């Protein structure tokens, strides 16, 4: 906003995660719930809301349970090629689905784990950016949205906040056909099903088809549209409030040809999407290009 308003030509953005300092992250997460109906009234993993949303998404869209597990398999495998991928692993769907239950039907291997990290970006006006170097990455469009804070009023089968944020970003970037526009995407995978739900909200897959596409390899690094080639949060780790910048970092490195072993050939247009996490319905979408 400072740059767009003309107050500044250059701005620095920093975000970090220090989960190792949090003694009881589940207790912190529970404070985000309604204090009357949910908080402290029962002893439950705060991820119960993710389990409920996942169950509803599967039922409404007809997505197979195994497709969610395949997201974890894909992203953890991708992370093995990423030096930042501390949760990389070569596993199969059976191992994922038979891992400890986090909040049925969600399992622990389908839940990203927090890590410590810090990310810094330098932003500049278009005029200034052209003078600073040859590796400029352009923000073509950006959108943010927050759905109702009243959990019982939400449509658990859809990520409506992603639909709204994407609509704003696509309009700004003049993206008419998202499914054929992008070379890769870095989207939220805090939990396995969120990747599929988000892909449908972003119009990169039609409703109920994202699961079939991930099963067919369409979102693999050598597929039609690589999704979370970095390993995502499931493979690299979850950066809490810095997750959006992490998704952006991985996309920027792809556009600059600096992604190393996870580099997607000829990447020119990328999509970035993030979610703040339970119990919110808040997220952002950005269209990047070079």
Concise overview:
The protein has twelve helices and eight strands. By secondary structure, the protein is of the alpha+beta class. Strands 5-8-7-6 form a four-stranded mixed β-sheet. It has a two-stranded antiparallel sheet with strand order 1-4.
Could you list some keywords that capture this structure?
four-stranded mixed beta sheet, alpha+beta, Peroxisomal Thiolase, Chain A, domain 1, 290 residues, 12 helices, two-stranded antiparallel sheet, 8 strands
Total helical elements: 12
Order of helices and strands: HEHHHHEEEHEHHEHHHHEE
- Count up the domains: 1
pLDDT below 50 for ≥5 consecutive residues: which ranges? Answer: none
CATH homologous group name: Thiolase/Chalcone synthase
**What do we call the CATH topology?**
Peroxisomal Thiolase, Chain A, domain 1
SSE class:
alpha+beta
Task: Please compute the radius of gyration using only Cα atoms.
Answer: 18 Å
> In CATH terms, what is the architecture?
3-Layer(aba) Sandwich
Globally, the shape reads globular
What percent of the residues sit in helical stretches (DSSP H or I)? 25-40%
Distance N to C terminus = 21 Å
- How many β-strands, per DSSP? 8
- What's the level 1 CATH class? Alpha Beta
Main sheet record? 4 strands, mixed
> What proportion of the residues form beta strands (DSSP E)?
15-25%
- Strand arrangement within the widest β-sheet reads 5-8-7-6
| Average pLDDT for all residues | 94
């Amino acid at each position: 906003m400072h740059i767009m308003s003309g107050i500044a030509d250059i701005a620095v953005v920093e975000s970090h995660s220090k989960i190792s300092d949090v003694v009881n992250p589940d207790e912190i997460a529970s404070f985000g719930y309604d204090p009357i109906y949910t908080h402290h009234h029962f002893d439950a993993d705060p991820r119960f809301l993710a389990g409920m949303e996942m169950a509803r998404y599967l039922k409404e869209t007809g997505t197979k349970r195994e497709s969610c597990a395949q997201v974890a398999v894909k992203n953890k495998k991708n992370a093995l090629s990423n030096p930042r991928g501390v949760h990389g692993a070569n596993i199969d769907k059976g191992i994922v689905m038979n891992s400890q239950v986090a909040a049925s039907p969600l399992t622990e291997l389908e839940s990203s784990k927090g890590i410590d990290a810090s990310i810094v970006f330098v932003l500049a006006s278009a005029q200034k950016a052209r003078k600073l170097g040859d590796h400029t990455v352009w923000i073509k469009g950006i959108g943010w949205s927050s759905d109702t804070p009243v959990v019982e009023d939400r449509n658990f089968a859809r990520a409506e906040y992603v639909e709204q944020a994407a609509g704003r970003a696509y309009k700004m970037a003049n993206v008419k056909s998202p499914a054929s526009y992008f070379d890769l995407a870095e989207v939220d995978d805090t939990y396995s099903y969120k990747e599929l739900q988000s892909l449908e909200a972003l119009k990169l897959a039609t409703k109920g088809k994202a699961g079939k596409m991930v099963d067919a390899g369409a979102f693999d690094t050598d597929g039609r549209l690589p999704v979370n080639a970095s390993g995502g949060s499931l493979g690299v780790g979850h950066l809490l409030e810095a997750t959006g910048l992490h998704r952006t970092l991985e996309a920027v490195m792809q556009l600059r040809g600096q992604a190393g072993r996870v580099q997607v050939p000829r990447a020119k247009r990328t999509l970035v999407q993030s979610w703040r996490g339970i119990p919110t319905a808040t997220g952002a979408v950005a269209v990047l290009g070079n």
